[in-house]
Structures are given as structure tokens and as C-alpha cells.
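Hi C.,

You asked whether I'd gotten around to modeling the 209-residue construct. I have! Everything is below, sequence then structure, no commentary in between.
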Amino acid sequence: LALWQRSRRFRRLIYGSPALVVALGVLAIVGIQWLRPSSAIGNYQSEIKDAIEREDYEAAKIYLRKLASFEGMEDSARFRLAMIEQAAGNEEDAARIVAGLAPEDETGYADAHFWRAQKMAKDKTRWTKEELDTFIHHLEAVLEAAPEHAQSHRMLGDVYLARKDLERAAQHFEAIVDSQPEVRLALARVYRQSDNEPSAQFELDQAVG
């Protein structure tokens, strides 16, 4: 199959937000909340936050490894550890940890899947079919955990539109058009290519109105 090359607009769109999310406790990308089953966990989280604020990444990593020992906290702690490794300039260590959390052949931790999708979008300019399938896998894994995650819907809509898979492109754009009206032009293009002129004209009217 032919290689698929992204447009500059697509590249700006899917990598518009920072890849590194470290400040104030390293917030989860898809908004999955941390559990707080004990005061010990809360204490560790406070220590991690304080260490990050003073850029003491080694101390933050120590507390994150302790936090990972609690049931239900392992994946979120490991992901935050990866983000701290990235902040400290240890890109290979960060990528290794995230790869373990977000495998290419099954569903893992949603934040890690989104991180890998963003990294692919940033690093690649031409794609093989296999690479694009992997990219789609990571975004679909995010949507399994967070079905309303707008960035994943937007990215998948653009990918499927580029692949001429108009039905799937429409599904992803339609999922977010009310909250992100800027996708109306893309949705109009999908409808027009699907010979649905009334819907295409409606979306165009809404976009300019």
C-alpha cells in the first residue's frame, strides 16, 4: 500500500497540545482520576507534587515507585514516572516505560496510548499502512477508557478521511461536532464525498453562520 503523508494542517492539529504534562502532579491526559484509598497514598502524592515543583525529579521517582506498590495505582504511577523521566531528559527511559503500559497489540493504559499516538504524530512525516494501523490502535484504546475524548475523535476522523473511510470519519467528527464546531468543515467534506449534499450544506452553513 502507498505511504500516507500528512498535511501541515493535520500535523498542527494532532500535536497542538504539549507532549509533556509534568506540572502540579503530572495531570492525566485523558482525565482519569487517581484513587485515594488511604492517607499513605495521599501523602505520597503530596511528596511527588512538592518534588516536581522544586524540580527534584529523583525524589519524585522514589515516591512514585512507592506509590506503584499500592493496588490499583501501578499503571498511573508508572505513567507519571515516565513523564518525569521525560522531563529529566531521559527520553529512552520514558519511551520504554510507556511502551510497557501501551502495547501495540492489546489495550493498556489510556494515557500511555495517547502519549504514544502524539509521539508518532510528532515524529513521523510519512507512514506505512502498519504504522498507521498502530496509530489508530492507540487512539481507539484511549476511546475505550474515555469515549468522549475529543482529541482522539478528531485525530481518528482526520485519519479515516485521509483513508477515504468516510463512514468512520463521519462517526468520529459527529461525536464532537457540538463541542468542537471547528470540525464542521471537515464533516461537510465527508458528507460531500459521500454524496450527502444536504448534510454537507447544513454543516457549511453552520460553520459560517
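If it helps when you're writing up: The radius of gyration is 19 Å.

Thanks,
B.
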